[in-house]
C-alpha cells in the first residue's frame, strides 16, 4: 500500500497507532535501552512510556505525522517547552513499572535534559520523532520534522532537540540543526547531543 506522505496534525483518534510507531522506533535508542535494559520487556514498557508522553503532548504540545502514523513527531510550541510533569511528582508511580530499578537514572536523565534546554520559552522543542521501522529510509521523518520547522520559521522562533543516537546527529544537521552541547546523565549514561536550529526554513 502506498504511504500517504502528507504531514497532518494527529490527535486522540490516532493514539494507538502513533504510540506503536514511537515504541517501535525507539526499541534500540541508546538512552531508552539504558533505562530499560531488559530487551524482552522493553517493547511493552516503551508502549506504556510513549503513551504517557503522547497524552502529555495532547494536553501541552503538538503532534504531527503522516495520516497513517508511519512517522510521528511530538513538539512543544513556544510557551510550553518547560510545561510538563517531571518524572518525580504525585503521579510518579506510573513510571515505576516502566523504569523499575532504573528510575534514579531516569530521574537524572530528565533533570539533565531540562538543564540543557534553553531557559526561556521562545522555542519549538522537538521532543520525539519516530518512523515505523518498516517505513524507515523513505524520507518520512525528514518530512515531518520539516513541517514542524516550517511552523517555527513562521512563528520566527528557533528549535531545540536532544538525541542520544550518534547517527541522528548528521541527519539533524542536514535539516539545519547544529550541536549546542554534548553531555551525559551520569555514570553509564550514553552521550547526548542537544541541538539548536536557528528558525529559518530547512
| Biggest beta-sheet profile | 7 strands, mixed
- SSE arrangement, N to C: EHHHEEHHEHEHEE
CA-based shape = globular
Supply the helix-strand structural class: alpha+beta
Fold-level CATH name: Aminopeptidase
CATH architecture descriptor text: 3-Layer(aba) Sandwich
Written account of the structure:
This protein has 202 residues and is an alpha+beta fold. The chain has one domain: Aminopeptidase (3-Layer(aba) Sandwich), CATH 3.40.630. It contains seven helices and seven strands, in the order βαααββααβαβαββ. The chain has helices at residues 15-25, 30-35, 42-60, 96-99, 103-116, 140-155, 166-174; strands spanning 8-9, 62-65, 71-76, 124-131, 159-163, 178-183, 192-197. The chain has a seven-stranded mixed sheet with strand order 1-2-3-4-5-7-6, sandwiched between helices. Strand 4 (124-131), helix 6 (140-155) and strand 5 (159-163) form a beta-alpha-beta unit. It is globular. The chain starts with 7 loop residues before the first strand and ends in a 5-residue tail after the last strand. The mean pLDDT is 92.
Question: What is this structure's SSE topology?
Answer:
Layout: E1 8-9, H1 15-25, H2 30-35, H3 42-60, E2 62-65, E3 71-76, H4 96-99, H5 103-116, E4 124-131, H6 140-155, E5 159-163, H7 166-174, E6 178-183, E7 192-197
Parallel strand pairs: 4-5
Antiparallel strand pairs: 1-2, 2-3, 3-4, 5-7, 6-7
Amino acid at each position: 500500500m502506498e504511504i500517504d506522505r502528507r504531514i497532518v496534525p494527529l490527535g486522540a483518534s490516532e493514539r494507538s497507532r502513533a504510540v506503536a510507531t514511537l515504541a517501535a522506533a525507539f526499541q534500540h535508542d541508546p538512552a531508552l535501552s539504558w533505562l530499560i535494559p531488559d530487551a524482552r520487556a522493553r517493547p511493552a514498557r516503551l508502549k506504556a512510556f510513549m503513551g504517557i508522553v503522547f497524552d502529555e503532548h495532547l494536553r501541552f504540545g503538538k503532534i504531527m505525522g503522516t495520516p497513517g502514523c508511519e512517522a510521528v513527531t511530538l513538539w512543544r510550541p513556544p510557551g510550553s517547552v518547560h510545561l510538563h510533569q517531571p518524572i518525580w511528582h504525585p503521579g510518579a508511580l506510573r513510571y515505576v513499572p516502566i523504569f523499575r530499578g532504573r528510575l534514579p537514572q531516569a530521574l537524572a536523565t530528565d533533570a539533565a535534559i531540562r538543564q540543557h534546554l534553553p531557559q526561556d520559552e521562545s522555542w519549538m522543542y522537538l521532543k520525539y520523532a519516530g518512523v515505523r521501522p518498516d517505513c524507515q529510509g523513505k524520507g518520512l521523518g525528514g518530512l515531518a520534522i520539516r513541517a514542524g520547522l516550517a511552523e517555527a520559521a513562521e512563528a520566527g522562533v528557533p528549535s531545540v532537540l536532544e538525541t542520544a543516537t550518534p547517527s541522528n546527529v548528521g541527519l539533524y544537521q542536514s535539516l539545519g540543526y547544529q550541536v549546542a552541547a554534548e553531555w551525559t546523565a551520569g555514570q553509564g549514561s550514553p552521550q547526548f547531543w542537544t541541538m539548536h536550529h536557528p528558525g529559518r526554513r530547512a
